[in-house]
Specification:
The protein is mainly β. It has three helices and 19 strands. About 9% of the residues have low confidence.
Length: 286
């Protein structure tokens, strides 16, 4: 009996250590979000822009505009400790603590102590760690690693009103969709997140890459003044799913055949030696 109990304790210890040592997925990585405000007059999309680096004291913050309040927000990520802070009235307030494990307690800025429950949630192409905070048995805050809150990534849920209802539908990093409300909530049709992949956002990487013709029907040619070296190409659909991949690309031109891709809007990401060199929107027509 003692041997069995000892084995169980060792197993649980190793499990916790493995969980806590898993690679952390940063939240502030050329990130954009689409926040929906739903009231009596209907629902309105509010896509955000990527944050701007601002140095305050010894720290570098990302400055965002919270579209629901039209106010500036300054966020700072401590990736080593898996925490994200928001600067309020000249000091840092803890906004997220992704190091929490199940049954951990945490007291937020509002002075209320919550108990954490850790699980996973479906995102585009896989799963992410999800932390639910409970107070008096009721879920209050829901945090998704690399995404933030499922309501408003810039503000804690306890600050939000019930009307209008504010919630997150999409989150992208480097122009590629990660969080998709439809996928996360098991809906038959994924949420259209193309509002995050606007021309403004897709042009953040300005390279000597030319696509022709665009729109195209059967074949697309991608050229570059310099030579592609050890490049990799991915094509994503409007909800961020990878639909085509090409690897070990070398030379000045890439030819893409349409194959069985349906007409619509897609996004191409090209990496070279593991670094993103271009992200572009393409249109396939009939």
């Amino acid at each position: 009996m003692k041997t069995k109990l000892l084995f169980t304790l060792v197993f649980l210890t190793l499990l916790v250590e493995k969980s806590s040592s898993q690679t952390y997925i940063p939240m502030l990585n050329n990130s954009t979000w689409n926040i929906v405000v739903a009231g009596q007059l209907g629902a309105q999309n509010y896509p955000t822009s990527q944050g701007i680096d601002v140095i305050i004291g010894t720290f570098t913050y990302k400055k965002f505009l919270d579209p629901t309040t039209n106010t500036d927000v300054y966020l700072r990520e401590d990736a080593a400790n898996r925490r994200v802070y928001t600067r309020v009235n000249g000091s840092d307030n803890l906004l997220y603590d992704f190091s929490l494990q199940s049954s951990n307690s945490i007291t937020l800025v509002n002075g209320i102590t919550y108990v954490a429950t850790v699980s996973t949630v479906n995102v585009v192409g896989g799963t992410r760690k999800m932390i639910s905070l409970y107070n008096a048995g009721a879920p209050t805050e829901t945090w998704i690693e690399g995404v933030g809150s499922d309501r408003n990534p810039f503000r804690p849920t306890y600050e939000l009103f019930s009307d209008p209802y504010i919630y997150l539908t999409c989150s992208a990093q480097n122009g590629i969709n990660i969080y998709n409300y439809g996928i996360t909530n098991g809906q038959t049709t994924p949420t259209d997140c193309s509002m995050l992949l606007s021309v403004e956002e897709m042009n953040y990487l300005k390279q000597d890459v030319n696509l022709s013709p665009n729109p195209f029907q059967t074949q697309l040619s991608i050229s570059k003044k310099s030579i592609f070296e050890n490049s990799k190409l991915k094509i994503f659909n409007s909800i961020g799913q990878v639909v085509k991949t090409m690897e070990n690309i070398t030379g000045q031109n890439i030819i893409i055949d349409r194959d069985d891709l349906k007409s619509g809007i897609y996004y191409i990401q090209i990496t070279e030696n593991g670094k993103i060199i271009s992200t572009n929107k393409i249109i396939i027509s009939d």
